[in-house]
């Protein structure tokens, strides 16, 4: 059975699996996806309680407009097998696996899922180490993987670097991951903004992420969800310009001209493709735009 492809995930909101008070509220801010986190956000001494909460509470937030996922601990940890066996409800939209570095590791997850009658669950792979980023293309091509996210904080820690607000230290890695996503035709989600009060940075990073080709952003606070949802949609100005550009371009094509002058810019097929993508992102059919 092939896993269900990932739906639109402009915002992917995380909450600790041990916060049973927080999980039922996860969908209130209308994120495209929510993640009950049994990994980093759940202390080592509370892993059993976290996976129990994940199994019990996930069904309560299903059907409320958000895709529902659980992030498990990765293969090689002492909690992995129990997370798969006792923490994953069979009606989840997928499972999030952190620290993905090898095909062998992904195969181990796929085998464990199948052994627990969960082989229909797709994997959102966390690419957050040097090896994971370096092998991103191969990892994203795995048949069980339905998408990925880039984890900047773990990546910089793995490299022994220094995190900065301008993101220069992760620009290459972000580019590698989003390119791998494009080649595998699977959506990739951008890094967190750890200071959830810094909405200015979040908006700035979202604009950059969308320009690079990311399809969404990790959120660690409900206040970030609306910023992500809005940030990954074209503005009214972008949509208006795309409509006008395509109208002018089609007139040119009909007259036998492959490139036109549109408002002082040369427009040919690559720019027309971008305009069509803008309309699709806004929910408009480029071929039937009225």
Features:
single chain; 290 residues; alpha/beta; TIM Barrel; 2 domains; eight-stranded parallel barrel; two-stranded antiparallel ribbon; 11 helices; 42% helix
Brief synopsis:
The protein is α/β, with parallel strands linked by helices and 290 residues long.
Low-confidence stretches: none
Count of individual beta strands: 10
Q: How many DSSP helices?
A: 11
**What is the name of the CATH architecture of the largest domain?**
Alpha-Beta Barrel
**Secondary structural class:** alpha/beta
In total, the number of domains comes to 2
CATH class designation of the largest domain? Alpha Beta
Give the helix/strand layout:
Elements: E1 11-16, E2 33-37, H1 47-61, E3 67-71, H2 80-87, E4 94-97, H3 103-115, E5 123-127, H4 130-134, H5 136-140, E6 145-150, H6 152-159, H7 171-184, E7 188-190, H8 199-212, E8 216-219, H9 223-231, H10 236-254, E9 260-262, E10 265-267, H11 269-281
Parallel strand pairs: 1-2, 1-8, 2-3, 3-4, 4-5, 5-6, 6-7, 7-8
Antiparallel strand pairs: 9-10
Helix pairs in contact: 1-2, 8-9, 10-11
Provide a descriptive summary of the structure in words.
The chain is of the alpha/beta class. The chain folds into two domains: 11-231, TIM Barrel, CATH 3.20.20.60; 236-281, no CATH class. The chain has eleven helices and ten strands. It has helices at residues 47-61, 80-87, 103-115, 130-134, 136-140, 152-159, 171-184, 199-212, 223-231, 236-254, 269-281, and strands spanning 11-16, 33-37, 67-71, 94-97, 123-127, 145-150, 188-190, 216-219, 260-262, 265-267. The strands form two sheets. The protein has an eight-stranded parallel barrel, surrounded by four helices. A two-stranded antiparallel sheet has the order 9-10. Helix 2 (80-87) links the parallel strand 3 and strand 4. It is elongated. The protein starts with 10 loop residues before the first strand and ends in a 9-residue tail after the last helix.
